[in-house]
Amino acid sequence: MFKLREIQKQKQSKPIAQVNNNINARLHRDLKSLELPPTTQLHIVRGTDDPIPSLQLVVTPDEGYYRGGSFTFELLFNEQYPMEPPKVKCLNRIYHPNIDTDGRVCLNILRQDWTPALDLQSVIVGLLFLFLEINGVDPLNKQAAETFNTSRQDFAHAVRRSMNGSTIHNIHYDKVTNP
Question: Which keywords does the record carry (predicted)?
């Protein structure tokens, strides 16, 4: 009787272990097949109790409005990956129509357009795309989008100032340029 209960407990715990192994296998496969552009760096950050790693992506655009900046994103995965996208947050306060001052990122593949067929490479390319093709139509930072939509010259000036750690519209932005 005692062995029967132990066997039942083992069977109940196996599906959870299999799910975690699948998550790690998928992340491992994503990381192994990753082809990072030269303007990105990826760092694996492991939690002490969590077998699923979080990642930090550093993006240093070499063209466009954000050229010369260095932006760090945190990518958090949960047990539902790849059925659910990773949670992505910009760790720098930056002046960008599609990134709010709390670091939330507006990127369609991280929300309504996510499918399990997408992978880490897709997320990285999407984040790079944010710096190259700014979307002023569906913004998180409405003031930045308004400036972008009305005057590209004023927007470029505001981006430069913000990247150097200035205050714009009473919001202080992080210095993200290299000295």
Answer: ATP-binding, Nucleotide-binding, Transferase, Ubl conjugation pathway
